[in-house]
Amino acid sequence: MSLEIDISKTVGDIKLSKKFKLEEEIMIFYGPSGSGKTTILNCISGLNTPDEGEIKLNGKTIYSAKKRINIPPFKRKIGYIFQDYALFPHLNVYENILYSKKDDDLDKDKIDKIMDKCHIRDLKSRYPSKLSGGEKQRVALARALMIEPELLLLDEPLSSIDNELKNKLMNEIKLVQREWKIPFIYVTHSKREFKFLGDRFISFNSTEEVNFNEYKKNIS
Amino acid sequence: MKYNIFKIIMLSIFAIFAAFIILVLISPTIYIKSTNLLNLLINSKEVSFSLILSITTSLSAVILAIIFGVPTAYVLSRYDFKFKRIIDIILDIPLVLPPIILGLSLLILLGPIGGNQLAKIGLNFVFTKLGIVMAQFVVVAPLLIRSLKIAFSNVDPKLEKAAMTLGDNHFQVFKNITIPLSKEGIITGVTTAWARAMGEFGATVMLAGATRLKTETLPIAVYLNMTTGDLEMAVTVSIVMIIFSIIIMGILQMYNRNIYDYGGIRQ
Fold it and tell me: Which helix (H) or strand (E) segment is A28 a member of?
């Protein structure tokens, strides 16, 4: 599984340019709020369209300005965990998790396995409004994994979680990534998450720079 | 503190106002003898004709308003384009314009201006039942659009985006996320639009006229009977309309209670 990106997108006065290749590892987008991390994430998922460049997922072009290719988000098989999880409030946990499964497409063993992995089997019939922050995060993770993603995007998934639980959840996220062996892109401005989870990182240091510094660093 | 003066003043004004409205609503029933009322309700051809006409035309107008209103409200709440603000304001103007003016404009548009062309394809709006539907539609569509616009705007776009990353195309997102999450606003909008269409008078009388047993909706029946001095008939029709309004409010109240059922959340 691999992701290749070479895109640019102008938002207001800022031109964001990103070029990198990602294998089965966790890439951290690290930087302050408003520096364009979520914009790049949205471009990768297909929710936003870059101005120019190309995105390839497992060798398949999912976006190319030159070739006029722009696969819509619902066909990209890219899991996305939003900052406040975006769980559907009118559906219970089970229905949220099965959202991507249409009718006869149910593999009960797989559902149970993912629910166990995310420790949410007991929450099946609860509605999102009755879940704690940590539980919501786990449900969002399970829901994203149900589409069997080839890439998982996580936009500050632990920003509203207290410190004690954060360690546990970071561990779980790392374990899931190692088990699923797909690239993860993890947006954060927390040093702790960055150091614990990151195999590599891209710094979104300043909103004023035309081209952002790009670093590669192994944290081990 | 023995007495809360503030509370007493507030409660007194509230009680006076509530009592006044109740009195307004029940006064027609005080005026007419119950035996006469029942007799007219059951036997009057005019009452049954205007009730059936009002229900069929208002339902048709509301269906039309939904067909045009849902996409319009969605566009206004989700997309950005040039002159959006101005168009938005223009679409709200019918809400503050007297219906009689709307009726007059419709009469000119569908009569002298476009009447002949429309007649060629079988559409006659002036002094016809179709005219009633058109008048009600133009009056209630902006009302419905306003409710729907608020309802759609209250749905977090992030939820729609999440659904898209989970495999839904735009139509599926609309059906599975946007509509269910704005259901409360949609139901409120549709029922109030329906009630408003049932009571529409000004635009209807201009475009469709007030012809007994032809374009005689409930409000027009009240008007026709008042002008001919048949107060009992006018009161009977009014009571039918009051009962209808109570039913509509009942539906709304029942529904508003039910929406808390899924886990007590509101987005």
Answer: strand A26-30
Give the chain A residue nearest B267 (alpha carbons).
A89
CA atoms within 13 A on the CB side of B31: 16
Name the CA dihedral angle for A93, A98, A104, A110, rounded to a multiple of 10 degrees: -100
What is the gyration radius of the CA atoms in chain B, in angstroms? 22
Mean pLDDT, consecutive 10-residue segments, chain B of 267 residues?
A: 85 97 89 79 88 95 97 95 94 92 93 85 90 96 95 95 95 95 92 92 92 90 92 89 88 71 44
Reported as a single tens digit per residue, the pLDDT across A60-109 is 999 999 999 999 999 999 999 999 999 999 999 999 999 998 766 677 88
pLDDT at B257: 67
Give the amino acid at B9. I
Name A187's bridge partners: A29, A155
Give me the DSSP letters along A149-179.
-SEEEEESTTTTS-HHHHHHHHHHHHHHHHH
Nearest to B267 among A89, A92, A147 (CB): A89
- Pairing mode, strands A26-30 and A69-70: unpaired
For residue A162, the tally of other CB atoms under 10 A from its CB is 10
Q: Cα dist. A6→A17, A44, A58, B137, B159 in Å?
A: 8, 10, 15, 52, 28
Q: Which two tokens stand for residue A61?
A: 């072009």
Sheet with strand A200-203: strands edge to edge: A78-81, A151-155, A184-188, A26-30, A200-203
How far, in Å, CA of B267 to CA of A88, rounded?
10
Task: Name which of B155, B158, B165 to mutate to probe chain A: the one with the most chain A Cβ atoms within 10 A of its Cβ.
Answer: B165
Residue A213 scores a pLDDT above 70 = no
Asked if A82 lies within 8 A of B158 by C-beta distance, the reply is yes
Any idea what DSSP says for residue B177? I
Q: What is the pLDDT of residue A146?
A: 92
Q: Using beta carbons and an 8 Å cutoff, which residues of B are at the interface with A?
A: 156, 158-159, 161-169, 172, 176-177, 180-181, 262-265, 267
Task: Give the mutation candidate from B78, B158, B166, B261 for the A interface (greatest A CB count, under 10 A).
Answer: B166
**Measured between alpha carbons, how far is A211 from A189 in angstroms, rounded to an integer?**
19
**Is A43 within 8 Å of A16 (Cβ atoms)?**
no
Hey, what amino acid is at B108?
Answer: I
Residues of B whose CB is below 8 A from A43: none
The vertex-A45 CA angle with A42 and A130, nearest 5°, equals: 80
Residue (of A134, A171, A147) closest to A96 by Cα position: A147
Q: Which two tokens stand for residue B179?
A: 């509509």
Q: At what angle do helices B183-198 and B45-78 cross, to 10 degrees?
A: 140
